[in-house]
Amino acid sequence: MPETDEIEFLDDPPPSSPDDLGGFALSPGDAPPPPVVPADGPVASWAARVLAEVNKVYVGQDGLVRGVLAALLADGHVLIESVPGLGKTLLVRALGRVLGCEFNRIQFTPDLMPSDVTGSPVYDERVHDFRFRPGPVFTQLLLADEINRAPAKTHSALLEIMQEYRVTVDGTSHPIPRPFLVLATQNPIESEGTYNLPEAQLDRFLFKLVAGYPGAAEEANILRLHTLGSSPDKLLADDLVTVTNPEEVLEVQARCGAVLVDDRVLNYIAALVRRTREWPTFSLGASPRAGVAILRGARAVAALEGRDFAVPDDVQEVAPWALRHRVMLTPEAEVEGQGADDLLAELIRSVEVPRS
Question: d(Cα 140, Cα 45) in Å, to the nearest integer?
């Protein structure tokens, strides 16, 4: 591993147009990552095995898959915004099968109660006493579908579990198995019957990812799989192979947490977060938790690239994922139709990139 003072940071200036932003997430969906180049390192080789299996059944959405994998490695949770029918459930099921982890799905509805998520005491006639029956949250990969359709007390119960990794009922704490990854979804095209998540609760998600429609070639490949009789359920049952296990996932998470981050990169992250608080089109800037999210994400992306040190490019890739749900636009910016992604891209270009 190179010494800290020998790290070569990129001297190229930030890209001048949103189309050149590489890992930046641009409307309507997260941009795909740069072309895949084989990377060395235990985390990179582990990720290659996982992606090789997931790609058998989940076509396209490379940016979404990369963001979810980075969140898993950073031990954080993800909020996904997309229209229905883009395969979010399929992605989580495929990950659960490939990772050897348990998978559950909760369909959030207006009548869903907190006990429907956490579980509740049930009277056991055999022992004439109450015993705790775990709810669907006791899993390792949880899809919280359309989380904004449930009332505040229900998704607040889930968000508390995401923070503390345990459920407390009648004074007894029940730990959630690790690793524990929540992928919550919300539909951006409907507002009737939904409850907006408060900003304080949105802040609990490490990343917010945006899934757009697949490209023409990818959509043709999806149809081709169906014409060949390869339905997603059949592929999941017959073709996907478990290539890792929860213990190995925890191991690669620990490796990502040990990735070196130079002080200049730390100062760069802090400068990005602080700039959101003074940006004229933001009425609310990001909290220090946003900087921690960027740091954790940059470490995960660096490990995915086979490095044991983070560089500014890693920060630039994950910054939109970590910031887009932690800033609020001014009413004037909303009236003008400006989007958070475009404004964040402009903000990131305005901050000087550290040089060696």
Answer: 22
Instruction: Please state whether the peptide bond connecting residue 110 to the residue before it is cis, i.e. omega within 30 degrees of 0.
Output: no
Residue type, 8: E
Q: In the chain, what is the greatest distance between 2 CA atoms, to the nearest angstrom? A: 71
Instruction: Confirm if 221 and 235 have CB atoms less than 8 A apart.
Output: no
Does 75 score more than 90 pLDDT? Answer: yes
pTM: 0.84
> Phi first, then psi: what are they for 88, rounded to 5°?
-65, -45
Identity at 340, one-letter amino acid code: A
User: Residue 339 region, left (φ>0) first, then alpha (ψ -120 to 50), else beta?
Assistant: beta
Helix (H, G, I), strand (E, B) or coil at 232: helix
8 A C-beta contact, residue 292 and residue 320: no
Q: Which CATH number fits domain 4-350: 1.10.10.10, 3.90.1170.50, 3.30.70.380, 3.40.50.300?
A: 3.40.50.300
Whether pLDDT at 350 is above 50: yes
Tokens representing 145? 């579908």
Least confident span in 32-41, 91-100, 171-180, 218-227: 32-41
Nearest 5°: CA angle at 197, between 300 and 346?
A: 55
Q: Picking from 46-50, 155-159, 270-274, 324-328, which range would have the lowest pLDDT averaged per residue? A: 155-159
pLDDT tens, residue by residue, 158-207: 888 888 899 988 888 899 999 999 999 887 776 655 667 777 778 889 99
Instruction: Find, among 350, 349, 353, 207, the residue nearest to 267 by Cα.
Output: 353
Domain boundaries, the chain: 4-350
What sections of the chain are H helices per DSSP? Answer: 42-57, 62-73, 88-99, 114-118, 152-164, 199-202, 216-227, 232-238, 246-257, 263-276, 288-304, 312-323, 331-335, 340-350
| HSE-CB for 126 with a 13 A CA cutoff | 1
